[in-house]
Every structure is written in structure tokens, then in C-alpha cells.
């Protein structure tokens, strides 16, 4: 699979987010009754980026919300290792809410897509693979700031 289309372009000094650049991919999984399952994720094969950071979310309650931000430059891929959760994604115009619940599927989200995780099951374990190291300047944490950067804010 080739890399998805770049999620943003500069158009008259405005950033354009593209929710259509979000991609699902089934991961290679090898299973036997005795040995269980082994699932593989490879940079450049399953992900359109090299993995620079890995983090995971667990112990979140069903009423917990995580994320609620966008990244200026970072690509992220989400895998529900155990349990399930919902992932709401928007580019400021279109939105999608996806149920994550399979450890052999990965959802890749390009930069400039607002993401919010919620409705965690008690046993949920969310693995996130990121294209860059943590940088607080990469985060857009306020919805109104996000819309303004996209040129969709109230003027």
C-alpha cells in the first residue's frame, strides 16, 4: 500500500485538513490454537511514516475523554490492542466517529485532523504510534484555534 495523500496543503496561506486521508489497514496476523496470535506493524509497509514515538492508553473509564486536539505535523496510528473505544475525527467540516475494537487493524490519521477518544471499555488498551517525538508546539489544543488555523474560524 502506498502512502495516503498528504493531508494538508497551503492554499493562499491557509492550511487545509483532509479527513479523506484517514486510512484503515488490516495487519498481517499469524495465529495457531496453541501459540496464539502475532500481529505485525511495519513502518513503510503498514504505516506511511517511520515510528518515532509509541504510547498507550489504559485504565480510562467509560466517561473519560482523551485527545481532543490536533497535530500540526505528526501522523498517528491507532490500534485497539484490547477492549474497545470510539474515535471521533474531524477536519473542521466533515466528521467521522469510528469504533475501534480489533487488534489486527490500524487506523492512520494525518496531521491537522482533530481527534477525540471516548467510550472506553473497562479493559481497553489503545496503542498509538506517532511519526515524531513529543513536541508541545505541535499540538493545537483549543478548538477555536484549530478552526482559525484552518481559516474556518469566526472572524
Task: Give me the secondary-structure topology.
Elements: E1 8-11, E2 14-17, E3 23-26, E4 29-32, E5 36-39, E6 53-58, E7 66-71, E8 76-82, E9 85-90, E10 95-100, E11 105-109, E12 114-118, E13 125-130, E14 139-140, H1 143-149
Antiparallel strand pairs: 1-2, 3-11, 4-5, 6-13, 7-12, 7-14, 8-11, 8-13, 9-10, 9-12
Largest beta sheet: what is the strand line-up? 3-11-8-13-6
Beta fraction: 35-45%
Mean pLDDT over the residues: 90
Seen as an oligomer or otherwise, the chain set is single chain
- Count of helical segments? 1
Coarse shape: globular
Task: Summarize the biggest pleated sheet.
Answer: 5 strands, antiparallel
> Residue share in helices?
under 10%
Poorly predicted regions: 1-14
Element string (H = helix, E = strand):
EEEEEEEEEEEEEEH
Written description of the protein model:
This protein is mainly beta and 155 residues long. It has one domain (8-149): Jelly Rolls. Helices cover 5% and strands 45% of the residues. The protein is built from one helix and 14 strands; from the N terminus they run ββββββββββββββα. The protein has a five-stranded antiparallel β-sheet, with no helix packed on it. It is globular and about 60 Å long. It starts with 7 loop residues before the first strand and ends in a 6-residue tail after the last helix.
